[in-house]
Amino acid sequence: MQEAALFSFSSTSNNSDSDSNKPSPPPCTQVLFSQFQSQSQSKSLDSDPILINDSLTLYKGRVSTFDVFGVANSDLLPGKYEGGLKLWEGSLDLVRFLYTEIQKGRLSLKGMRVLEIGCGHGLPGILTILEGASLVHFQDFNAEVLKCLTIPNVKRNMSKELAELGFFSGDWGEVHKMLLCDSIENRTEDCGTSCGGYDLILMAETMYDIASLCSLYHLIKKCMKKRGGTVYLAGKKYYFGVGGGTRQFIRMVEEDGMMEACMISEVTDGASNVREVWKLIYK
Questions:
Q1: Quick one: DSSP state of residue 149?
Q2: CA 276 – CA 259 distance, rounded (Å)
Q3: Cβ atoms 249, 211 nearer than 8 A
Q4: 3-state SS class at 96
Q5: Rounded distance, CA 138 to CA 165, Å?
Q6: Nearest CA-CA partner of 148 in 61, 44, 41
Q7: Predicted pLDDT at 148
Q8: Whole-angstrom distance, CA of residue 28 vs CA of residue 190
Q9: pLDDT tens, 46-77?
Q10: CATH number for the 28-282 domain, one of 1.10.1240.10, 3.40.50.300, 3.40.50.150, 3.30.429.10?
């Protein structure tokens, strides 16, 4: 028996019952890098070294959901907090893959315009800064995550400002209005010459909620450069209990037919669900 299609592109979400129980998403905002503590203060924050390989160590901050949101530590509070304070395995998988590609001469980030979706700690985006990207934008559902974790992490890992940076919070269905877009219909009036989309879009562990996969994919299509743009995504093959996963997302991409998807790495360490890294490009 043929399995029924799980996604429809006639609408982004039809889960009215579950949506009605969720609180309204926070408004889209830009968090200014210059508003937060100096680099010397950032270096005094609680942080842990993360060994990427023998030649690269990055740092991640330690922030709890109680410190930021006043609630008991949790990976997810639907509609209020989407897990950005936790360093997920897929983020490190993505960093290690990118750095290996750079070291082997198969990837250059110099001069690229980069967007990290669902950034949290922002380690993939931080790597692109260190490797010569000219513009890097970080997006997370919560402005609090950007203020308390992402920006301090960026400052902790940088010896000086190396790229044009932007930090944007909000729901995937709306936040494109504040980002760079590569289609006229998606550009805002004040977008001007700074549009044209991103050369590289990165995301890790963003595919856990099946109800949000369509809005995530539509965000990518609005912001990815039509010519030469690339998406690298990392996550678990399946997120048991919530219905999402890399395979659900890739199936949706393949049904749409606009992009080519290629799995480039699989991690089976026995400590967690099978994890994957995928590459997307326009056909």
A1: I
A2: 18
A3: no
A4: helix
A5: 8
A6: 61
A7: 92
A8: 16
A9: 899 999 999 999 999 998 888 888 777 766 77
A10: 3.40.50.150
